[in-house]
Fold this protein.
Amino acid sequence: MLPGSATERPAAGWGAEGTMAAVAGAASEGQPRVDPGAAGEPERKTAAAEQRQHRAPARPRAAEEGDARDPRQPSPLAPRSQPALPRAPCPQRKARGQGRSCKRSSSLRADESRPRRPVTVDSSKARTSLDALKISLRQLKWKEFPFGRRMPCDIYWHGVSFHDSDIFSGQVNKFPGMTETVRKITLSRAVRIMQELFPEEYNFYPRSWILPDEFQRFVAQVRMVKDGNPSWKPTFIVKPDGGCQGDGIYLIKDPRDIRLAGNLQSRPAVVQEYICKPLLIDKLKFDIRLYVLLKSLEPLEIYIAKDGLSRFCTEPYQEPTSKNLHHIFMHLTNYSLNIHSSNFVHSDSANTGSKRTFSSILGRLSSKGVDIKKVWSDIISLVIKTVIALTPELKVFYQSDIPAGRPGPTCFQILGFDILLMKNLKPILLEVNANPSMRIEHEQELSPGVFEHVPSAVDEAVKVAVIRDTLRLMDPLQNKRDAQPQQSENPEDPSDGDMHTAPEGRSHSETSLPSICLKQVFPKYAKHFNYLRLVDRMANLFIRFLGIKGTMKLGPTGFRTFIRNCRLSSSSLSMAAVDILYIDITRRWSSMTLDHGDSGMCLQAFVEAFFYLAQRKFKMRPLHVQVASLIDLCEYHLSLLDEKRLMCGRSGTAGTRPPGSSTPQGATPSEGTSPLGLNGANKLSQSKYLLS
Ligand code: ADP
């Protein structure tokens, strides 16, 4: 096993024997805490009846829990389609920022005495999620505009990306840059930065290398570990970047087996340690698709759906050997692959077949004595930590696509988290999908080669609930009070892990609907995770110095201004050395990212430079302490500068922005993560810099 790898540290409290057999022998906890049918069953009937009446034309592909394929998917680094315009002066920015926040819904609070107008939803770009969306809208009694509308709608439902149509107001169900941010390479890089800072907290992601750049490093590290431990017989999985549905994935036993020939240069990939001991059910490997709602980026708000899907392999699992490496039905859980196996079992029941609800799996584990609250709590932690790793990059995209001072919509997004449970029940993150499939039908082979699309009750139960309840949470006309999360759970501790709690707040018109299936996990558990948000704070600094053009790269002048304004140069770090640092790191990152877009320093390069500066300034401390100290120092000097400018009556000058303007969606920065806000902790640590 590689040092620092996900497989190295089993979760505390779980023995190595996490198999179903071992679990079966464990002490029973009494009544299962999760009622697998409770959330989905009643509504499935309603939804199925709805769907029969209002089914959209059959789609050409089966319901697939991978990314919905986008034939027009732009290159992650393609030039932005919306031209960036200069920002408006500070006062306008502030007013507009407030207007764009997700919190804006409170200012639109409807007069409860008057009848509510229906919420309007433009579904013209919904694509494969259209069926589930239609059912959701009918259940909510909202007004659908299937061909768009001349007047603005409250909500725009896009099937693929933020850019599906030009929107200047309302809410859209995609964030700009999300597809690029969760691509395999970008995700691996983002998690690796977090692993450098917090190795223990981020050991839920398998050790990964980026190809072709890190091929030599991959070979060298594997050789080093093998030399130290000759009995180590690892397996690796190679996944093309931007691939989905198992496309192009293969397993290898030796780094030399990587197919370097061919198009690896043009199609980069991630090679990852293969998790050899997954939890098996009915001797089959399976994974979990969980739906996560990113309700707001700033302040960060995350919800997790109480139910998801489990996708099963169709060939009994055996640990990888050179003989079975190519058995995709044994090793890959993708629905799109396994549907072609003769062993694939389609079932309308939630707890049998090759696609089941996650709650049915939990019910089964619970009946065998597994502490499913612990499983949930580990999954909640994994989700929050992953989102924390992704938000810095997302913020950079956001400010570039919707520059402050320009009209723009508020964004939210449903993400698909693919998670593998290890034999010891530790959850492992496989990937994050920006466009999880929301299809509610599946392909059935009537006779050889003849396929028909039929409703899939399991898909419908889970996905309609996720879409409908996302809309309920985003309801712009909803009384804010109704949207408040339940206070009955312990707000301090994610280990309460109970995803099947009492209904969340509901409006009078919603009383006929099931309770909301999405549970807020952030800011609810923020106290436990805010200390991890260091890169987020670095991104706020980065954005501040990007300038006014809505770019995503920091120019040399911006970097110099950052160093000067944060007082980081000294006799031992001259401005000439700063320039060399900038050129060095920027050049390396530009070649690594095969980036032919804007020139300049990308966020990851800035983070690398920041780490370097932190290590120089605060020697002999753990990296996360060094980095946190440098962030404190930078924020402190910038706040002094802002105060000084305010006193002089000057709003921002070139290369800087006024406080808060770096905050996407213009909302109040969350406590402890303020880009420039001086929270209590910062004030304390600042005093030491004042003294020195
Ligand atoms: P895709 O986007 O093409 O579906 P994934 O990263 O989800 O790519 O991988 C496809 C499948 O391969 C997963 O559903 C899972 O079954 C298996 N898999 C991926 N990564 C690993 C891993 N590190 N260890 C074990 N199995 C994995």
